[in-house]
Fold this protein.
Amino acid sequence: MTTITLRKAERLNSKKAIDTLFTGGGSSSMSAFPIRVVYRLVEPQPNAAQIQMLVSVPKKHFKRAVKRNRVKRQIREAYRKHKYVLWDKASEGDKALLLSFIWLDDNLHDSVDIDSCVARLLTRIAEKL
């Protein structure tokens, strides 16, 4: 049995990689309310995971950091549970995948709702790869 974890190498924290994700015309996006995901296939970097992700919850939606952190924690947990869908598909190719989850709503949601949204988004991304 393998453990399902979210390692540090799987987190997108390189300024250069984030700029690559959001600039230029190679990025795609899709939504499953209340989450929007932006993704891009790039050349793999040394010492980095094949799929890297980041979570963004704008201050515009939640002024209190406690609520923003709660939403980020819920999205990371949902991604951790369902990332195998993408990992199976990405292991076939020689490209790396950058993902960004962006929160769109002004209200908090249950973890079950967020879990289903993230699972739906990851499945749709895997189909397009």
